[in-house]
Amino acid sequence: MLLNDYQLQSRNTARYPDAGNNLIYPTLGLTGEAGEVADKVKKLIRDRGGVVDERFTEDVALELGDVLWYVAQLATELGLSLEQVASANLRKLKSRSQRGTLKGEGDHR
């Protein structure tokens, strides 16, 4: 599936207040879902010695899908396509790699 196809199809399920003019809802949803991914990894370390199995992978895949949904909605709210976001990210990483600045801090390095 292409990223923009996912974005368009996922938008059909956007049922939140003032969808189309609401940055706050998808931003908060994104942070919540990212937190759920982190919590699953935390519990994997705490409860299962860091052993990744098929069920863990499936559970994290579901949460990553939720993260992707919120990323898509936030991008839509901003008038961005997921393909634009992904392409810009790859350009940024390639530039950092070429300049030897993949490590370090700051968005504009």
Describe the structure.
The structure is a single chain. The chain has 109 residues and is mostly helical. It has 4 helices and no strands. The chain has helices at 3-11, 24-48, 54-77, 82-99. α1 (3-11) packs across α3. The longest helix has 25 residues, at 24-48. The protein is globular, with a radius of gyration of 17 Å. The relative contact order is 0.15. The model has no long low-confidence stretch (mean pLDDT 96).
Set down the secondary structure blueprint.
Elements: H1 3-11, H2 24-48, H3 54-77, H4 82-99
Run of helices and strands:
HHHH
Number of strands: 0
Low-confidence segments: none
CATH second-level architecture: Orthogonal Bundle
As a percent range, the share of helical residues equals 55-70%
Alpha-beta content class: mainly alpha
CATH topology name: Helix Hairpins
Kindly, what is the distance between the CA atoms of the first and last residues, rounded to a whole number of angstroms?
Answer: 32 Å
Q: Mind telling me the C-alpha Rg?
A: 17 Å
